[in-house]
Design goal:
Layout: H1 3-9, H2 14-22, H3 27-40, H4 45-59, H5 67-90, H6 95-105
Length: about 110
C-alpha cells in the first residue's frame, strides 16, 4: 500500500500525513502540507521536522538545487520562522531546529 493510500484511508492520522508528505516531490506542497499537519497536530514533533527537512535538504544542498528553488525557499522562510521558534520551545533538545534557524540567518 502506498503512502498516498495510507493517508487517504487515515486522514486524521499525524503519522500517515507525515509519511505522505515525505513522499511528495514538490517542495512548496511539502511546506504547505507540513504547515497543515502542524495546525492539526501542534504537539507532533515530526510535523516541525518536515519543515526543517525541506529547508535542510533543499536549501543547504547547493550543488543539486536550483537558484530558483533557493529563492522560493528564501521567500517562504519568514512564514516558517515563528514555527521553528515554537518547535524549539516545544522540543528544546532537537538540534535540527537550531541548525535550520542558524543556517537561514546566514
Amino acid at each position: 500500500m502506498s503512502a498516498d493510500n495510507l493517508y487517504q484511508n487515515n486522514p486524521g492520522s499525524a503519522d500517515h500525513h507525515y509519511l505522505w508528505v515525505r513522499c511528495l516531490d514538490d517542495v512548496l506542497i511539502q511546506l504547505t502540507e507540513a504547515r497543515k499537519l502542524i495546525a492539526a497536530h501542534p504537539d507532533y514533533k515530526w510535523g516541525y521536522r518536515l519543515i526543517q527537512a525541506v529547508y535542510q535538504i533543499n536549501f543547504f544542498n547547493k550543488q543539486d538545487v536550483s537558484e530558483q528553488l533557493r529563492d522560493l525557499l528564501t521567500e517562504n522562510y519568514p512564514l516558517d520562522k515563528d514555527t521553528l521558534v515554537r518547535a524549539f520551545t516545544l522540543f528544546p533538545d532537537d538540534d535540527y531546529t537550531l541548525y535550520t534557524m542558524y543556517e537561514m540567518s546566514m
